Amino acid sequence: MVKPFVPQLVYVEPKALDYPLGKKLITKFEDMGIEIRETTSHNQVRNLPGDNHFQKYRVAKSTLVLGLRKTLKFDTSKPSAEYAIPFATGCMGHCHYCYLQTTMGSKPYIRSYVNVDEIFDAAEQYMSERAPEITRFEASCTSDIVGVDHLTHTLKHAIEYFGKSEHGRLRFVTKFTHVDHLLDAEHNGRTRFRFSINDDYIIKYFEPGTSRLNERIEAAVKVAEAGYPLGFIVAPIYLHEGWKQGYHEMFEKLEAALSEKTKKDLTFEMIQHRFTKPAKRVIQENYPMTKLELDESKRKWKWGRYGIGKYIYKDNEQEDIKDTLGGYINRYFPNSKIEYFT
């Protein structure tokens, strides 16, 4: 079982101590005996311990930086929500394929933002512009927020904030199971709690440092019993030998664990494995022994957003994925909704 994340090293921006959450967290980490260093900015953390890139990368993944989110213009977040809401950046997991590999670049450390009320104020602006339409905010575009929330409780604060919101809804997804502190949050059904799930082969070989499938399913059951709307992201869907059997077993386990009541309002999102040329370079540098198949000749090239092309599965493989996994979902969860396949 993956233990809850505890940073080996904490950096703090001086201005973070002007906020109650910043002060509270520094006191907590001091009491835990964790080394605390000062940094001018959460974007300028230098001199991480380590003799080479490999060591520094792994130290960064166990380093937490407390800072301020200065840019309060939210990115759009289709297809899962209207906007991304930024409470944290970075992740303690070591998923070989993760798109954060390239977007985080040379800064793979975990950042948690302490100016939470300012982030909520910005969210209010976005909601008021779209009212009376509902505005959905995705809290896990740049991090696995659950992985750090047992320390910060920022997500819990956000769940309760949106629980009182007339026009806002919150969504996030996680591969971690440290959810007990979130079970009593007053969510009022306005937060959809989603788990990223995959077959055992993919979790074993490509998702080190994250919770196992059975643990994620157990956590999903707890979350459903706490009354949260529940969802699952099957991602990345990766074609390996025996993939149809692997995904079939995954859906069987899920169906057996969930109550009939829970199955009435389930959502599924399906995302096929893809990669870019820059991502391939970074993945092979950070995980030189990976079994991840990154052969461009076996893929279809597609223009992505911002002009960066990505390699996805060929059309016939995509059809096979949609038919196979869509078939499993329709068989085991006939009342659920497949939100998209991409």
From TrEMBL:
Keyword Lyase tagged: yes
Protein's UniProt keywords contain Lyase: yes
Keywords from the named record: Lyase
InterPro entries named among the record's database cross-references: rSAM, rSAM_sf, SPL, SPL_Bacilli, SPL_firmicutes
Top-level lineage group: Bacteria
MF (Gene Ontology): lyase activity
Pfam family, one: SPL
This protein's name: Spore photoproduct lyase
Organism: Virgibacillus kapii
